[in-house]
From TrEMBL:
Species name: Psychrobacter saeujeotis
InterPro entries cross-referenced by the UniProt entry: DUF3817_TM
Domain of life: Bacteria
TM ranges: 6-23, 35-56, 62-81
Protein name: DUF3817 domain-containing protein
Keyword hit for Methyltransferase: no
Domain DUF3817: 5-86
Membrane topology: Multi-pass membrane protein
């Protein structure tokens, strides 16, 4: 679930930055920012809630929550964070086995 929300949140942020905002400021079409911005806001809040819940439930590393929050503020950040977290969790599982 967290992976899906991460991809949706990251995609909505990229749509907001690279499509909706240029449409608003270059072509005077503000509707994209209104709707994509609202969707991105809801996805961002959902992402943070699921991140915290997942970190507690899965006993993620200490760096996971601040890195996830920071990643959600940067373009392409959620994609990179999810990749690094998956890699770290797989390494931990293979060490325990």
């Amino acid at each position: 679930m967290q992976l899906t929300i991460g991809y949706l949140e990251g995609t909505s942020f990229l749509l907001l930055l690279f499509i909706a905002m240029p449409l608003k400021y270059m072509m005077d079409i503000p509707e994209g920012v209104k709707y994509i911005g609202m969707a991105h806001g809801m996805l961002f809040i959902t992402y943070i809630i699921i991140l915290i819940g997942s970190a507690i439930k899965m006993k993620m590393p200490l760096w996971a929550i601040p890195a996830g929050v920071l990643g959600s503020l940067l373009p392409f950040g959620p994609f990179i964070f999810d990749h690094l977290l998956k890699k770290n969790l797989q390494e931990n599982v293979s060490k325990e086995a």
